[in-house]
Amino acid sequence: MINARYTKYSLHFRTPAGTSRGTLLSKDSWFILVNDDMHPQITGIGECSILKGLSMDDRPDIEDMLKLICAAPLEIWERRDSALAEWPALRSGLEMALLDLKNGGQQLLFPSAFTQSLKSIPINGLVWMGQPDYMLQQIDEKINSGFRVIKMKIGAIDFNEELHLLSYIRNHYNKSAIEIRVDANGAFAPEEAPDKLNQLARFDIHSIEQPIKAGQFAIMAELCRQSPIPIALDEELIGIPSHHQAKALLQTIHPQYIILKPSLLGGFEASEKWIKLADDLGIGWWVTSALESNIGLNAIAQWTATLNSSMPQGLGTGSLFTNNIPAPLKIKNGALHAESSISWDVSAIL
Hints:
Layout: E1 2-19, E2 22-36, E3 39-49, H1 62-71, H2 73-78, H3 80-83, H4 88-102, E4 121-122, E5 125-127, H5 132-144, E6 149-153, H6 159-172, E7 179-183, H7 193-200, E8 205-209, H8 217-226, E9 231-233, H9 243-253, E10 257-260, H10 262-265, H11 268-281, E11 284-287, H12 294-306, E12 329-332, E13 335-338
Parallel strand pairs: 5-6, 6-7, 7-8, 8-9, 9-10, 10-11
Antiparallel strand pairs: 1-2, 2-3, 4-13, 12-13
Helix pairs in contact: 5-6, 9-11
């Protein structure tokens, strides 16, 4: 018999994390812990990462649903498409916990050359919104520490200041030296988006994530057709209830890229369905974390390593928190590494 329980853990940012939706000082994760009566000493851990105002699971009745899951985890998992349709983060956490338990409760969900410390995952360096001097400092730090792909959050400060920061990068590094991705988190008004995209294009931008708010399919489709910068859908993928609707969305908008956040999409199984649709339509993709602790980040990184993508991924968030779960993950020279010499310490959760 599989037993399950849950616990909550609040992660605290080292420095305020600015986005167009506001500034984050902390974020909550819920953890599902499962074990088997036959081997009670082995615990599988799964993380349900909740982003305020974005996750479908950001609801006052989340604990009620967690209790239902923990009362019958295998039964709920068997009915996941219906029972967890409105709970993608909880579905992701349950999937993670069961995979971890199946593999011995060692946070080794997807063995690969990455988990054996033989291969690393190239990642982007994330630059949070803030005052221009602070953003400039972050840019310099990322480049000096070996990142060759910079992702810059835009949309919260003056647009001309953001253009100035992009100009600073390009005055020092051409596109062959530094790739720039920007993430607007839906900050542009539809009527101003074309002009802003044209201005951004001067800086050889690789792509822009979610220039306008999700749900404006016809406008987004037109932007993807006309934009001088490739567009990546992010928030647009949240809350799409069926495979048929997911396919229709990608066929209608036909973006250049999609961004896969397993915690927001329902886990690895659900994310792989998006990948298959994107591949069939000639749409590119990469994987991004959703501010998980190292528990979730580790699982997502291990899964990503099995996908054999050459794209730099968005998996550099582990160092953001002062109280993250100690884990054998390390960023070196713009890549995420699994360090077998570093031990896990999950006592804060257990």
